[in-house]
Write a structure and sequence with these properties.
single chain; mainly alpha; 77% helix
Length: 209
């Protein structure tokens, strides 16, 4: 595996490529950011026990984790600020989508009561990060309500993705099998997060007059 991706994983440019992919996948969810993070982490696992030149030609696992988490938070904030300034046009676009409207309402309620776990869950769901970041900005949620949860989401996603690649590489070796198993686990988490986001919110207690 390292032979096929060595030109990228063996270069400091791997950090820039990962950062840009994670940063922009809030706007283009089709970017292979998860694949890149897992592949780089698998390469790091392959070189963790090596010495000399080989050890220097693989990504540093902590640098990779920091790079992915930071880019995730920065991407969230860019989308949040653009949606904030987008104003009425974006609000009208959200209003035309029942799914986006529902997600925005749930996000607003969660942030208002100090529990933004939805932001963390959405980070793992396909396009969920986009829905939440843009929805928070369009609804003009306060940055202090959104940012801490965005940081937690970015760290959780980066740690999970890097961990999958690294430990998969440790257990299965630096092979396509290790990457494939790690990607299945990442997609599984995404499917579970998407299900939780789509699940109807329980109705509140009824009151009688």
């Amino acid at each position: 595996m390292l032979e096929s991706v060595g030109s990228l994983t063996g270069s400091p440019w791997i950090y820039a490529v990962v950062a840009l992919s994670v940063l922009f996948d809030v706007f283009l969810p089709v970017l292979p950011s998860g694949f890149l993070v897992i592949t780089a982490a698998t390469a790091a696992a392959a070189g963790s026990g090596a010495a000399g030149q080989m050890a220097r030609e693989v990504p540093d696992i902590m640098a990779l984790l920091l790079c992915a988490a930071t880019a995730s938070v920065l991407g969230d904030l860019v989308a949040y600020r653009l949606a904030w300034r987008g104003g009425e046009r974006l609000s009208r676009a959200i209003a035309r989508s029942r799914r986006l409207t529902s997600a925005q309402e749930r996000l607003g309620a969660a942030l208002a009561r100090g529990g933004g776990i939805l932001v963390v869950i959405a980070r793992f769901a396909p396009a969920g990060r986009s829905v939440v970041s843009l929805g928070a900005g369009a609804a003009h949620r306060k940055v202090r309500e959104f940012l801490p949860w965005s940081i937690l989401a970015g760290v959780a996603w980066a740690a999970y993705s890097v961990g999958l690649g690294y430990f998969g590489g440790q257990w299965l070796g630096a092979t396509w099998l290790a990457t494939g198993v790690s990607l299945v686990a990442l997609f599984g988490a995404g499917a579970g997060a998407a299900y939780l986001m789509r699940r109807p919110r329980p109705a509140g207690p009824q009151t009688t007059g």
